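@channel sequence for tomorrow's demo:
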Amino acid sequence: MYGFDKTRYKTLHLAAAEAAQRIYAAGIAIWNDQIGPGGNNVMANHAAHAFDDTDLAVMDHCTDPLAQTWSQMIRLRQDFARHSSNDTLVEIYGLAQTAKALGWTPSSEPYRRNGPRPV
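structure tokens (generated this afternoon):
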């Protein structure tokens, strides 16, 4: 259930979109207006680690700004898995907001306690 197989998706773009969703909604939580690790970090980490440097380079060099943003989110989540810095999670959250402005509609938002849910 927590594993992530990018080959199940028709394109790298679709796999990256699903990985970004898991990284955003499962890997981040907001407590008292502070961003921290989410309730399902295993799911978020598996999604991020399904992509190698070649996959991310392909997304970085495509013309779709959403794919480029997802690539950055994936890289940052890989970094978070190694170093566990809340600053990294804040960067991921910011990139998700950028992706939303570009038209991404995530199917769910991070868990939030003691504050309004993000728009």
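heads up for whoever presents: The helical segments are 12-25, 41-49, 53-60, 65-83, 86-101.
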